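Batch job 17 of 40 flagged for manual review because the log was empty.
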Amino acid sequence: MIVYLVRHTSVNVPKGVCYGQTDVPLNDTFPIEAASVKENLSNIGDDWDGVYCSPLSRCVKLAHFCGYTNALPDNRVKEMNFGEWEMQPFNEIKDPRIEEWYNDYLRVRTTGGESFEDQFNRVKEFLMEKKLSGKKKILVFAHGGVLICAKILAGMIDPKEAFSHLDNYGSVIRVEI
């Protein structure tokens, strides 16, 4: 199955703030960034067996701008849930567990949230469900962490190097599952 994944456009959140599943606003540059995404998608075609999106507004808004008002929302393609750390600058999080998480973000859950492994498992479940249903080519509007999960599943990157492969806002990537 061929999967095209689109990372949402830039958000209006200060750099270094952990926002995960918080429904944050987009930057004022959204129309320009979204037009670029739409142009990139027009070069791929529109013969999709399904179009999906994270239910968070930053993904829904981009899907709609690109002409996919019927994109099906799915919670499994949400960003990682950072729990109690959401909307805090990473360098100001006082939770003593943050060091444990920094040392093993793949398996350690954030306080009140999830681990990267939790996110990977739900993204994998979503993608395998689509593949097993016979879909050949799908489009997904999602988040940086979801794109990383898909690249790991496709064998494109090693999980231990996951966050050194974060795609830019508005990126469109292609993976084969």
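Reviewer: the log was empty due to a logging misconfiguration, but the result itself is present. The two ends are 5 Å apart (CA to CA). Unflagging and moving on to job 18.
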